[in-house]
Design a protein that fits this description.
The complex is a heterotrimer.
Chain A (H helix, E strand, L loop, with lengths): L15 H5 L3 E14 L4 E16 L4 E5 L6 H8 L7 E6 L2 E2 L5 H10 E4 L13 H11 L5 H14 L16 H13 L5 E5 L7 H18 L2 E6 L2 H7 L2 E6 L2 E7 H6 L4 H9 L41 H5 L5 E2 L5 E2 L5
Parallel strand pairs in A: 3-8, 3-9, 6-7, 7-8
Antiparallel strand pairs in A: 1-2, 1-4, 4-5, 9-10, 10-12, 11-12
Helix pairs in contact in A: 6-7
Chain B lengths: L5 E12 L2 E13 L4 E5 L6 H8 L7 E3 L4 E4 L2 E2 L5 H7 L4 E4 L13 H13 L3 H14 L5 H4 L9 H13 L5 E5 L7 H18 L2 E6 L2 H7 L2 E6 L2 E7 H6 L4 H9 L38 H5 L10 E2 L19 H4 L1
Parallel strand pairs in B: 3-9, 3-10, 7-8, 8-9
Antiparallel strand pairs in B: 1-2, 1-4, 1-5, 5-6, 10-11, 11-12
Chain C lengths: L2 H7 L6 H5 L6 H5 L3 H20 L1 H10 L2 H26 L11 H11 L1 H18 L1 H4 L10 H4 L19 H37 L1 H16 L2 H11 L4 H28 L2 H8 L4 H37 L11 H8 L7 H28 L7
Helix pairs in contact in C: 4-6, 7-18, 8-11, 8-18, 11-12, 11-14, 11-16, 11-18, 12-14, 13-14, 14-16, 15-16, 16-17, 16-18, 17-18
The chains are: A alpha/beta, B alpha/beta, C mainly alpha.
The complex binds adenosine-5'-triphosphate (2 copies) and magnesium ion (MG) (2 copies).
């Protein structure tokens, strides 16, 4: 059951051509949700959930997307899966602009990109058995029917560490961790290339969390999957990701290689975030970078750098207060959006 | 030293439901000194919340504290206290704060009204005086412009501020014990860090005893002086934070630590505790951890181990037969990882 | 978890005595200690036997009169016998049932419901009522509308020959209540079916598609709800002529908005649930998501609303017939039987009292069932 979550060797093993073109790319993605109010539902404002996110996800890697609640992680994931259409910007999947896809193309895309959810209770239809859940997926995509479908369901359940007999059970008959496995099996049923895992372990107990993390890493190796791993838990990121994108108020503020980001975070927000994570080993010895105040609302983001009202950096000045810092590539390949670096 | 501030002995709290008896808390003992922080750590469903509610006698039927359990506040027996007496204890001598800062505050009253209410009830404070003290409490919690914020409603507060308001309410009457049930679980890490610092600072200033419940080992390691580890309604290990996190003796604590990812370093591999917690209606026979334990042998399946030791206690047969501690959690030992 | 399935596993080999039990429906269940199921089957079997013994001439009359209600009664009789003996046989002779592993939420709800004694009582009352209605021609030797010998049979008080006495035309009140039940119950059933179907479709569409569809449909619903139902009813009935058909249509058409409201609310929250999003990510079509993933999850509250609505509709219909706005005499309905006995309340109290009791019992039964279902289907009890 134990599988190494070490992902160091993942990229080297691939042919060089494959690593060059990203599997998924976001170009200046923007998603604003209108706020309606009043009798006639007039638009009275906009939630700027995602505000100019650009990133690339390479084939076979795990890109972690981290940030605090409400910073737009889920929205970004749904945009990449074309479950939401962006207000502006483009999503490129395997060289194809998503907005150019017709119905048939979109259907084919749905087979290649899948999602795993956080809530092990809400993400499975309580009225369907596990078997019928998987059978439906196989039938809708004409992947297998009849005897072949049953066999495939058995394989899928086996792949996620459940017993094939359990296909006739209903979701509520499983524990949280087992349900999460069922959600993973459903995503794998279409044999996708790209999986968005939206906080897949956040609702699980520590002892079960490790099981699911190991399973995800194991499946990635077996089926050559590419993950966008959304989480707010930095210790999980360290364990599973190859690269990390840190989001704050709808923007990516730092993006870089996992190990170097954890060793030397560049953006003041990343530094504060890392210092705030409690660690059983560090105990009370840690030195925390204090942040004052709360995250601003994405409905009324501050002008300039979104982080400036809380920024602990001593040199916060008018530039920070008026100009939005762009995401710049620095020496060593890491990217950060800060005027002071 | 005389009697401890709070002493819980063999606490058992069961739910007598139509489907059978849910033994949510089944033999929990601990004591708390003034100025001390006791961390209770355990996974979801292990009975942490029920234990906390039992101390304040807040369990609703079909939940019940079983006879034989003892809860002593200094030298008063709370299990025998009348409902009237309990009301004067709650919020006054023992306060509690909960996980969900939104649902624990009443949305129709202002923050000021809610803080003042406890003062009015327990201290018979006059309105003006209660308001002054409420503002003082908010300032103590690090909320700016407390006079103005008193007149705001909970929905105008952010998550972290609501938890501060909850703390202000809980601490308004200078309780000698504060029970905090996962007070930071619903918060972002940066906010959580602030609340933890605030709590630690307040405790030092006010000298109260703090029972801090969490499922997060990191949080407990940071705030607690002593720790008890719960599994399936029972205490499986207790000791100082240092002892528990550096030299865990119970296989469950050990496994839990090795399954926890760290920010500080990347572990070679996360070890896994197989399976999941059983249902509280049907705890396994013998040691409740045995179906998931790598060391389990016949005796573990048959006999429930006793909690051996005083300050440093472990509920495991390995304590009697240490030679059997071989193999165990796969991968390298914890020490070698460093 | 599943008591029945657990019992099936370690069921002991049965002897010949137990096998003989197959001839008596319910005995096998009783031998196994499942009292309620056993007694129900036994009662059902006894009813069919009693009809065959005491009313064999009327059963035979089915073939000579050829009236539809006789045929319905015959089919019901055969059906009841088939259920009683069929289930009894299977229980007694069948091998251990295959162990069903999946315990659906419906099964849990049923278990929860059957623990609620009052609700089960309501269910039994309702089943008895429907069975009696269907078997009506066999249960009474009289015809509901045939006027008797006014001199000798007018206003007879209750006796063995006339369980509920006779009315001013010498007709047997028991017979008329039985036939009246048909009208009341079927009006209720049909009107509720119409309103539930319409309400579910409108509510689901409104909730799932949102935006303009939602706004338009919900304003329409508001309009319907704000229009006084009784005024509408009386207007429509004044325009057309009062008949069962108009009453059903008007009642059915006025009840759906509340169902639509309930369904819309549920769908709005379901639409945000992750399993619906997962279905979208898997490329399922909108219609499929609504039918397979959303509707089954709103059925709970809809069933509760429908059951409570049934009681309500029966009450409204009785009121309308009482006012002469619904079914016209001589066709009996509970409301117009009461109306017919109104003038003679002092001399012949039984004419109005028994149909009144029937209404009370029926409405109470539906409300008990509705409350039981509400508790049993409460999603908070899951997990
Ligand atoms: N459908 C929607 N309509 C309006 N606002 C929305 C919608 N979906 C998300 N938002 C808003 O967009 C912002 C970003 O939401 P998102 O769910 O992406 O955050 P997140 O980073 O995933 O947070 P969490 O960690 O809490 O899941 C939030 O302020 C949220 O309220
Ligand atoms: N009202 C109740 N009726 C029946 N069982 C209950 C009730 N409340 C709690 N329980 C059971 O008691 C056990 C302990 O619950 P408790 O809430 O104390 O867990 P916890 O350790 O606080 O978990 P979490 O980390 O999820 O908050 C659970 O298994 C739960 O199912
Ligand atoms: Mg999210
Ligand atoms: Mg709890």
């Amino acid at each position: 059951m134990v599988a190494s979550t070490g992902r160091q060797g993942a990229a080297e093993g691939l042919p060089t051509g494959a690593t060059r073109r990203p599997l998924v790319a976001a170009e200046a993605l923007v998603k604003h949700f209108p706020i309606h109010s009043g009798l006639f539902g007039r638009e009275t404002g906009r939630v700027q959930a995602v505000d100019g996110v650009s990133l690339e996800i390479r084939r076979g890697e795990t890109l972690a997307l981290v940030g605090e609640s409400g910073c737009g992680k889920t929205t970004t994931g749904r945009l990449l899966l074309w479950l939401l259409e962006p207000t502006a910007g483009r999503v490129i999947f395997d060289g194809q602009d998503m907005s150019s896809l017709d119905r048939v193309g979109l259907r084919a895309f749905r087979r290649r990109a899948q999602i795993i959810f956080q809530d092990p209770f809400g993400s499975l239809n309580p009225r369907m058995t596990v078997g019928s859940l998987l059978r439906e997926v196989l039938r809708v995509h004409r992947l297998a029917r009849g005897e072949a479908a049953e066999q495939r369901i058995g394989e899928l359940l086996d792949a996620v560490g459940l017993h094939a007999d359990e296909a006739s059970k209903y979701p509520h008959q499983f524990s949280g961790g087992q349900r999460q496995r069922i959600g993973i099996a459903r995503a794998l049923a279409v044999q996708p290339d790209f999986v968005v895992a939206d906080e897949p372990v956040s609702a699980l107990d520590v002892s079960v969390q490790a099981q699911v993390l190991n399973l995800l890493a194991d499946l990635q190796r077996r089926f050559n999957l590419t993950y966008l791993f959304i989480t707010h838990d930095l210790s999980v990121v360290r364990q599973i990701a190859d690269r990390v994108a840190v989001m704050y108020l709808g923007r990516v503020v730092e993006l870089g290689d996992c190990d170097s980001l954890f060793r030397g975070p560049l953006h003041p927000y990343t530094q504060a975030l890392l210092s705030a994570v409690p660690d059983p080993e560090r105990g009370t010895e840690r030195r925390r970078i204090a942040l004052s105040g709360d995250v601003a609302s994405p409905a009324a983001p501050p002008p300039g750098c979104p982080f400036h009202p809380r920024c602990p950096h001593p040199g916060v000045d008018d530039t920070c207060r008026t100009l939005v810092p762009p995401l710049r590539t620095l020496a060593g390949g890491a990217q950060a959006a800060c005027h002071k670096i | 030293m005389g009697a401890p501030l709070l002493r819980v002995e063999d606490l058992r709290a069961y739910f007598h439901t139509a489907d059978g008896v849910v033994r949510a808390v089944d033999g929990v003992s601990f004591s708390l000194e003034p100025g001390e922080t006791l961390g209770i750590v355990g996974e979801s469903g292990c009975g942490k919340t029920v234990a906390c509610l039992s101390i304040l006698r807040l369990l609703d039927p079909p939940g019940r504290i079983e006879p034989g359990s003892r809860i002593m506040l200094r030298d008063r027996e709370l299990t025998a206290a009348s409902e009237e007496e309990m009301r004067s204890v709650r919020g006054n001598e023992i306060s509690m704060i909960f996980q969900e800062p939104m649902t624990s505050l009443n949305p129709v009253w202002t923050i000021g009204d809610q803080i003042a209410e406890t003062l009015r009830r327990h201290r018979r404070a006059r309105p003006a005086e209660a308001r002054r003290r409420a503002a003082e409490m908010l300032r103590l919690m690090g909320i700016g412009f407390p006079e103005q914020r008193l007149d705001e409603y909970p929905h105008q507060f952010s998550g972290g501020m609501r938890q501060r308001a909850m703390l202000a309410m809980a601490l308004a009457c200078d309780p000698s014990v504060l029970i905090a049930d996962e007070p930071t679980t619903a918060l972002d890490v940066t906010i959580q860090a602030e609340i933890l610092d605030l709590l630690a600072g307040l405790q030092e200033r006010l000298g109260m005893g703090l029972v801090f419940v969490s499922h997060d080992l990191g949080v407990i390691a940071q705030i607690a002086d002593r720790v008890i580890v719960m599994y399936a309604g029972q205490v499986v290990e207790s000791g100082t934070a240092d002892e528990i996190f550096r030299r865990p003796r119970h296989p469950y604590s050990e496994g839990l630590l090795r399954a926890t990812p760290r920010v500080g370093r990347k572990m070679q591999q996360l070890s896994v505790i197989p399976g999941s917690v059983a249902s509280p209606k049907l705890w396994p026979s013998g040691c409740r951890f045995h179906p998931r334990c790598p060391y389990a042998w016949d005796r573990c399946r048959e006999e429930l181990p006793v909690l051996r030791g005083e300050a440093r206690a472990v509920r495991c047969w390995l304590e009697e037969e240490p030679a059997r501690r071989t193999g165990g959690w796969d991968g390298a030992a914890l020490a070698e990882d460093r | 978890m599943n008591e029945a399935a657990a019992g099936a596993e370690d069921r002991p080999e049965r002897g010949h005595i137990a096998k003989a039990a197959a001839l008596v429906p319910g005995l096998a269940h009783l031998l196994e200690g499942r009292r309620r199921a056993g007694l129900s089957l036994l009662a059902l079997a006894l009813v069919t036997l009693a009809v065959l013994v005491f009313a064999i001439d009327r059963v035979a009359a089915t073939f000579t009169t050829g009236r539809v209600d006789y045929w319905v009664a015959l089919v019901t009789l055969i059906g009841a016998a088939a259920v009683a003996w069929g289930v009894g046989f299977r229980e007694a002779l069948g091998g251990p049932r295959a162990r069903a592993k999946g315990v659906s939420q419906w099964a849990i709800a049923w278990r929860e419901f059957s623990r609620n004694r009052v609700a089960v009582l309501g269910l039994y009352l309702m089943l008895t009522l429907y069975l009696a209605t269907l078997l009506a021609p066999y249960l009474t030797p009289y015809e509901p509308n045939t006027i008797g010998d006014m001199a000798t049979t007018r206003h007879l008080s209750p006796s063995l020959a006339h369980l509920m006495g006779t009315d001013k035309f010498g007709r047997d009140v028991f017979t008329r209540v039985l036939y009246g039940a048909r009208i009341s119950l079927s009006i209720g059933l049909i009107a509720v079916s119409i309103s539930v179907t319409l309400g579910t479709v409108v509510g689901a569409a409104s909730g799932y598609f949102g935006r303009v569809v939602d706004t338009v449909l919900m304003r329409f619903v508001d309009m319907f709800i704000s229009f006084p139902r009784l005024v509408l009813l009386i207007t429509v009935i004044a325009l057309f002529e009062p008949s069962i058909f108009t009453v059903i249509v008007v009642l059915g058409l006025t009840l759906w908005p509340s169902t639509a409201r309930i369904v819309r609310g549920e769908v709005l929250s379901l639409r945000e649930r992750e399993f619906v999003e997962a279905a979208r990510a898997l490329g399922l079509s909108g219609a499929r998501i609504i039918c397979r993933h959303i509707i089954p999850n709103v059925l709970g509250p809809v069933i509760v609303a429908a059951t409570l609505g049934l009681g309500n509709i029966i009450l409204v219909e009785a009121g309308l017939s009482f006012l002469g706005l619904s079914v016209q005499p001589p066709t009996p309905s509970w409301g117009n039987i009461i109306e017919g006995g109104r003038e003679y309340l002092v001399q012949a109290w039984w004419v109005s009292t028994f149909p009144g009791l029937a209404i009370v019992v029926t409405v109470v039964a539906f409300n008990l069932i509705g409350d039981g279902l509400r508790d049993a289907l409460d999603p908070r009890q899951r997990m």
